[in-house]
Amino acid sequence: MTMRGANRPFCRFGLSFFIILLLPAYLCGQESIAPPSKVVAYDFKYDRGEAVELSWQLSPDDKGNGSISGYEIYRAEDPLDSFISIGFVSAGTSSYRDKSVYKGQSYRYQVATSSDGHLYFSEISAAVVPRMELINWNLLNLFIIGLFLCGSVIFFISHATRGKKLFIRKIAGLEAIDEAIGRATEMGRPILFVPGINDMDDVQTIAGITLLGRVAKVVADYDIRINMPVSRSLVMTTARETIREAYMGAGRPDAYSDDMVNYITDEQFGYVAAVDGIMVRQKPATCFYLGAFFAESLILAETGNSIGAIQIAGTAQPAQLPFFVAACDYTLIGEELFAASAYLSNEPKQLGSLKGQDMGKLLAMIVIILGVLAATVSQMGGGQFFTDIHQFLSNIFTVQN
Amino acid sequence: MNNSRIWSIVIFAAAVLIFGLSWIIIGSQAGHNLTDAFLVTVAAFLTLSILSFLYKDNPYYKFAEHLFVGVSAAYWMSVGFWSTFVGNLLPRISPSLCTYFGVPYKGFDIFFFIPLILGVFLLMRLSSKMGWLSRWSLAFIVGTTAGLNLIRYLRSDFISQVSNTFVPLVTDWRGIGPFFSDFSLSITGQFAMSLSNWVIFVGVFCGLIYFFFSKEHKGAFGYASRMGIWVLMITFGASFGYTVMGRVSLLVGRLTFLFHDWLGLVK
Predict the structure, then answer these.
(1) Residue A378 is inside which H or E element, if any?
(2) Looking at the 3D structure of chain B, how many domains does it have?
């Protein structure tokens, strides 16, 4: 006890010495870092009230030299709850989108500069309440362009249904469909129809199934076999309906059988292995590949080629088109696949729809010429007028989120 | 017994012998057990069975094909049930079924009855009297797909493509004198950049003409259309080469498995 009491003044002196002299000296050794300023939080426009946009002015010490590691984002529910960290962005970043908010709840934000494990907090932002907007005005241009295209389609459909003749140019691959089916009839061999490996939520599959209707009708007329292995259950259901309709349309409902369409598997290469097996065993005279294809395109087309079948392919997958072009007799390239059903059926509705789409392409061509001219003349110092036109067209043909 | 049958038996016996020995040898090596060795041997057997199709259709290919199809069909059936039905639907409609299947209940949502009813309609195909109901489900799927994709393609394929084609046909123009005096074939030079913009403009424009169906492709329109198909074919050629390179790397992957993992010839 005595010893401890004797040392007490010395301890007090030591502690005081540390606090008064050494601590300020220690703190002065730490570089002072400025926090970010002007933290503004505002509701993210044109959403369902699920995001808040945050922006701030960078700390003056954020000079890209590594002294600042980044900014820690803090949020508190209003009326003021405790602030919790909700995210971190790297140095040099001055905005953040908070997507973890609830519609109608008020929030406040604080941004802290992070440096060497220390945080330097900004002022607290004003409160912000995320709200839902019913109309996204950013998409007005998309609406107008969509309206123009849909209007054109409706106009030409009504035009066609009134009995006006609409011209559609020849599509080479489609001319060959009847010829290919006729060949199968002569050879007494079946026809293989592959609708791709995507489900009914892909427009290419829908286009393929539409063409199947036409093929099945000719098949029913010629009384030959059609075999359609599919990789999706919904495609199987739709294909069976389509073929049944075609057989009924041809006046031969008794000749229809559900066995014409078989489900194989959803697995891409399992499906391909099975279709390859079917090809070499049944040796179809004609193979149709119409729909969405991926890595299996060349495997299928090469196997079809090896058995000497006439092959007609059509897809809008840019990466797979080269393989079909190389290995098949006829290929419907992209848009031709969608135009095919209109061309074959000659139905006013489908022809009008195709004509309406052509108006969209015409619009694109005109706008591209105007835009390129304006950009070129503006680049060559042609004046503010052309720069404004270029800017105007760019704004119209830019979709914001 | 004819010759082909004898050969089939001989090849089968040889295959059993080779893969049986392979199993035993790999299993006896340090760091392997018999189960690992069996799996590697089966994988090698199936790889070679599939590759045997390059020669011609044969019983080994048929075996691998049927195994692949059967296993994958069962797998996807199981995935469909557990991810769609149990994983997505039940947590929104029934707490008791969630407890039964051991998945967390996420709160009742009446909208989830729509896919449930449409799904039941699809199954009505099994009934000859109620089969027509399945067409409602199909009509819903096809209609919503078309509507949703219209907007998606309008944004990504139409509008973006048009705006990205607004390129100046002459870049960084400072007059004819500087054009010739500073002429360079560098990829970032004025000439190369301008040429690149010309290719974009002419390619897109002629491509659009090729896909324009309302006018006969004759005269100037026909020339532009032919230019469009040339642009497409050149693009396809480049894409063909690029993809073939990717496929070769897949082949290398399989050969690495055979020579490294199975035979151990490549270290």
Answers:
(1) helix A348-379
(2) 1
Query: At A400, is the secondary structure helix, strand, or coil?
Result: coil
Does residue B129 sit within a domain? no
Chain A environment of B215 (Cβ under 8 Å): 167, 169
The residue type of B35 is T
Q: In which domain, by residue range, is B224 found?
A: 171-262
| CB atoms closer than 10 angstroms to residue B20 | 11
Flag whether residue B232 sits within 8 Å of chain A, measured between CB atoms. Answer: yes
How high is the pLDDT of residue A23?
47
Q: Tell if the CB–CB gap between A281 and B57 is shorter than 8 Å.
A: yes
Cβ contact A267–B122 (<8 Å): no
B247 within a domain of the structure (yes/no)? yes
- Give one DSSP letter per residue of A280-328, joined into a string: HHH--SEEEEEEE--THHHHHHHHHHHTT-EEEEEE--TTTHHHHHHHS
The count of CB pairs under 8 A between chains A and B is 183
Chain B: closest CA distance from residue A266 (Å): 6
pLDDT of A1 reads 35
What's the topology of domain A166-346? Rossmann fold (3.40.50)
Mean per-residue pLDDT pooled into runs of 10, chain B (267 residues)? 86 92 88 89 95 93 96 94 94 94 93 94 89 90 88 89 94 83 83 94 96 93 95 94 90 93 86
The ipTM (two decimal places) reads 0.87
Contacts A273 to B, Cβ<8 Å:
50, 64-65, 68-69
Spans of all domains in chain A = 37-121, 166-346
Which of A18-32, A34-48, A318-332, B55-69 shows the lowest per-residue confidence on average (mean pLDDT)? A18-32
For A37-121, CATH gives 2.60.40.10
Q: Are A66 and A79 in contact (CB under 8 A)?
A: no
Which chain B residues contact residue A253 at CB under 8 A? Answer: none
Chain B residue numbers with beta carbons less than 8 Å from the beta carbon of A371 are 162-163, 165-166
